[in-house]
Amino acid sequence: MTKSIAIIGAGASGLYATSLLTEKGYNVTVFEARDRIGGRVLSHDGFDLGPTWYWPETETTITQLIERLGLQTFSQHTTGDLMLERQFGVIERHTLPPGHTVPSMRLVGGMASLTTALASTLPAGTIQLESTVTSIQQAEDEILVELEGGQTTAFEHVILAIPPRLVSRISFRPELFETTKSKLADTPTWMAGQAKVLAVYDRPFWRDSGQSGQGMSWAGVLQEIHDASQPGGLAALFGFFRLSAAERSVLDRDELKRRVIDQLVRLFGEEARQPRDVLYVDWSSDRHTATVQDGVPLTDFPVYQPIAFDPAWEGRLSLAGTETDSLFGGHIEGALRAAERVVNQL
After folding, report:
1. What residues contact residue 295 under an 8 Å CB cut-off, 6+ apart?
2. Peptide bond connecting 174 to the previous residue in cis, omega within 30 degrees of 0
3. Whole-angstrom Cα distance, residue 290 to residue 293?
4. Which superfamily, per CATH, for 1-39+120-188+302-346?
5. Cα 55 from chain centroid (whole Å)
6. What is the pTM of this model?
7. pLDDT digit string (tens) for 191-229?
8. Domain residue limits, the chain
């Protein structure tokens, strides 16, 4: 009899686990609370509003998967000078020494090309969107997964492919140990407190004057800026915010946009004044990503590692997701490695 498995979450980890299990002949159903696949992978017209890069020199799992799926890639543009703003309006220009930047790659069409390609390998009907799981309980030799609308389905194993902190929104019977709940709650969701903005232009004008599109600031609203241009397509600059989630929350979107553009003008010149579009996503306000705890800025890179469930759930419940990978936690590589780990343990 084919083993039935439920996967909660259709992000990179959940989709990859589903693909691997389907290849092995398992009967898999994916429940996704959002109205789209991808989780924190989000691309708009080829521009990434979530994760952007991967590093082939060290990240072998994603590199091999991209090759296997036949996806098109290109190198992140870093040629040229970096602009630095230590004090507001005081701009420095720096030529970085050769080899200073570790080469990274991007996907044509954005990182969503990867999750879309993974989903396309699955049988029709595998993924159920807008399906929020509220309860997971044991019943003799089955596990009952209940959705928000009351629908209940029985499975033999459940894989949670969601950020550890979101597990608390699901009711478990038998209930999880308090020590397990604490481990989950103490694991920060990578980038959940961040926001990302892209200013889209007709062409990468900054390259004309030998600028790379990279910028660093200790005074502007954006802390880190990069060239997000597409090969043969539109150009863009994207930035991560220096402002915390709380600081961003008191500014409306128009004011944030104004401050972003003003900063880009200071760093890259007057041509930055008139973008054709500004794309913005605040992950801290996405209920399917962040909790209140994630609004607290991180002071150190989190220590990520696999989280085991209680003995009562052994062999019945697994946790995947990038926050459970000890080597590449926070990266897509970590999400994929976590998927391989839980699949290999079945």
Report:
1. 193, 244, 245, 246, 284
2. yes
3. 8
4. FAD/NAD(P)-binding domain (3.50.50.60)
5. 15
6. 0.96
7. 999 999 999 999 999 999 999 999 999 999 999 999 999
8. 1-39+120-188+302-346, 42-110+191-298
